[in-house]
């Protein structure tokens, strides 16, 4: 089972950018599809983006499409989430997850999360 550690969260003003990283260990990273999810206060955890093992296929939630980009570096066992044009409604704890397929990412391994706060 792969172990995941997120980093890169913080406080940013609306319109700003952040890049989240998720480092994986304990498994063959290129065997896994990866995803980012987020949970805002008082809300359920929600899908943000996923990427397949090679990076050739990505999916995004409508709310982040055109602003966020998911990518991966299999040589570094790391998946990234570049977040641009941030909005206060993007404030949440962001989690990365790993699964055998894009469809099963949410049922796989999870990191501990990193807080992103966007001020207006």
Defining traits:
single chain; 120 residues; mainly beta; 4-stranded antiparallel β-sheet; 11 strands
Description:
The chain is mainly β. The protein has strands at 3-7, 10-13, 18-25, 33-39, 46-51, 58-60, 68-73, 78-83, 92-99, 109-110, 114-119. The chain is globular, with a radius of gyration of 13 Å.
Task: Tell me, rounded to a whole number, the average pLDDT.
Answer: 97
Determine the N-to-C terminus distance: 39 Å
Class based on secondary structure composition and strand pairing: mainly beta
Oligomer: single chain
Q: What's the number of extended β-strand segments?
A: 11
Question: What's the arrangement of secondary structure elements?
Answer:
Elements: E1 3-7, E2 10-13, E3 18-25, E4 33-39, E5 46-51, E6 58-60, E7 68-73, E8 78-83, E9 92-99, E10 109-110, E11 114-119
What would a concise description of this structure say?
The chain is mainly beta and 120 residues long.
